[in-house]
Amino acid sequence: FKITEDNKAVFDKVITKEELNQIKDKDFMAKSILYGAWFESYDKDKLEVKLSFNIIVPDTDWGYSFILTVDKSGKSRIEEQVEKNDDF
User: What's the distance, Cα to Cα, between the start and end of the chain in Å?
Assistant: First the structure.
């Protein structure tokens, strides 16, 4: 991921699945790949960019979604995106 402002890199980092300590399942980690990354939103008040990406096992429904948040200073955090189901 690379985020620039006025042609200056504010954030430039390769994210690997091994860095995602939220995932404790070794079998999943061995079979999974990082799949898809896209711009989610920009918060003008907080000056934060949010990017989404997934870690999945191909040809299955086994996966996790994450949000990478980066502020204007380049400080970042990665959080698992948990689906809310109103039926439960």
Answer: 35
pLDDT digit string (tens) for 13-64? 999 999 898 999 999 999 999 999 999 999 999 999 999 999 999 999 999 9
Do 84 and 72 meet the contact criterion of CB atoms below 8 Å apart? no
Q: Which DSSP symbol is given to 74?
A: S
Answer for the pair 71, 65: CB distance below 8 angstroms, yes or no.
no
CA distance 29 to 60: 14
The SS3 assignment for 62 reads: coil
pLDDT value at residue 86: 55
- Dihedral Cα 37, 8, 41, 20, nearest 10 deg: 40
